[in-house]
Amino acid sequence: MVFIELRNITKKFGSTLAADNVSLGIEKGEFLTLLGPSGCGKTTTLRIVAGFVRSDSGSVYVGDERVDQKKPYERNMGMVFQNYALFPHMNVYENTSFGLKMRRADKDEIKPRVEKALELVRMSGFEERYPKQLSGGQQQRIALARSIVIEPLVLLLDEPLSNLDFKLRQQMRIELKRIHKELGITSIYVTHDQGEALAMSDRVAIMNRGRLVQVGTPSDLYEHPKSKFVADFLGEINFFDGKILEISESKVTVLAEDGLHLCVGPLANHIKENKEVSICVRPEKIVIEKRRTQEKNMFQGRIEDCIYTGSVAKYYVRLTGDRLILVNKPILDYAVLYGVGDDVFVGWSPESCTILEKGEEDLIA
């Protein structure tokens, strides 16, 4: 059931179109992430939902109620900001209870609700501390507690983990998922970090230049992108531009620009022969061998560089014809890593490819 609905939201700042006719439905209890590069319109869209920015046209509904003409404090939404926005002169208890006091909650219910919220974010016992006495991760937990203590209908999170170090971000992802699961609050999360979006979300809405370009589950977006932009933005990928030579029921043959013949699994769309296309192959789906082990989609090359990341070896292989591709392989045994200058074969199955018609970069969801 759609609980939050954005209908044809448009917003301009001068000549910049920050939100371009954005329409989106969010299910009750869903964790949806707005994902995209800087300046794509995701934060503007979130702030329109929150009421901090007024759209030029369009409407926002929560349940059956239109809320875009209401003031922010009338919308019953909790907001977690990137910079925490804690009051430095208030201790943890006072910061957490602030929203309840502003809503004139009964004094008898404030303390148990604050205690419950702090317990939920695992900050019980810190009530008397001030923000300057807390780490960045602890401050972010208090900001989250302050937002959920008011029991909002909607929780909005604007890049809340971007100021944390890598390990702490990883931990907070798990904590946010746990808290969302326990509370079941409909949540909209904004980030430019693909890893966060894929790890935390029920669905992801990818934005570019103010528009929604694709909405779907993390696995659907990663495995089945509908445009070159989405394929390139989510993780690492190899592209082969070319033209369709032949289409059969079981496969498609594509001639790449550098002369490589590629075999792709059955078409899921209606691309015709002689059409200009892009073939997409994720680097983790490519095998690397010392000898040829398959007939289709296997090419000879030489390792030009190898980057060791601890768990994965990233091989940059220069194919005959001068194409450079990336191959990611888990490191199971450090002793059997390939070296720079090694002659190898790289290959992948026809089903591992995604085929996109040229010009689909701007496809609208």
What does this entry look like structurally?
This protein has 365 residues and is α+β, with helices and mostly antiparallel strands. It folds into two domains: 228 residues, Rossmann fold (3-Layer(aba) Sandwich), CATH 3.40.50.300; 133 residues, OB fold (Dihydrolipoamide Acetyltransferase, E2P), CATH 2.40.50. The strands form four sheets. Strands 6-7-8-3-9-10 form a six-stranded mixed β-sheet, with helices on both faces. The protein has a five-stranded antiparallel β-sheet with strand order 13-12-11-14-20, with no helix packed on it. Helix 2 crosses helix 3, helix 2 runs parallel beside helix 4 and helix 3 packs across helix 4. The longest helix has 18 residues. The chain starts with a strand and ends in an 8-residue tail after the last strand. 35% of the residues are buried.
CATH H-tier superfamily of the largest domain: P-loop containing nucleotide triphosphate hydrolases
What's the tally of helices? 8
Indicate the proportion of strand residues: 35-45%
State the CATH topology of the largest domain: Rossmann fold
**Sequence of strands across the biggest β-sheet:** 6-7-8-3-9-10
Characterize the biggest β-sheet. Answer: 6 strands, mixed
Give the N-to-C terminal Cα separation. 19 Å
> Which radius of gyration do the C-alpha atoms yield?
25 Å
- Name the poorly predicted regions: none
Assigned CATH class of the largest domain: Alpha Beta
Relevant terms:
single chain; alpha+beta; Rossmann fold; 23% helix; OB fold (Dihydrolipoamide Acetyltransferase, E2P); 2 domains; 5-stranded antiparallel beta sheet; 365 residues; 6-stranded mixed beta sheet
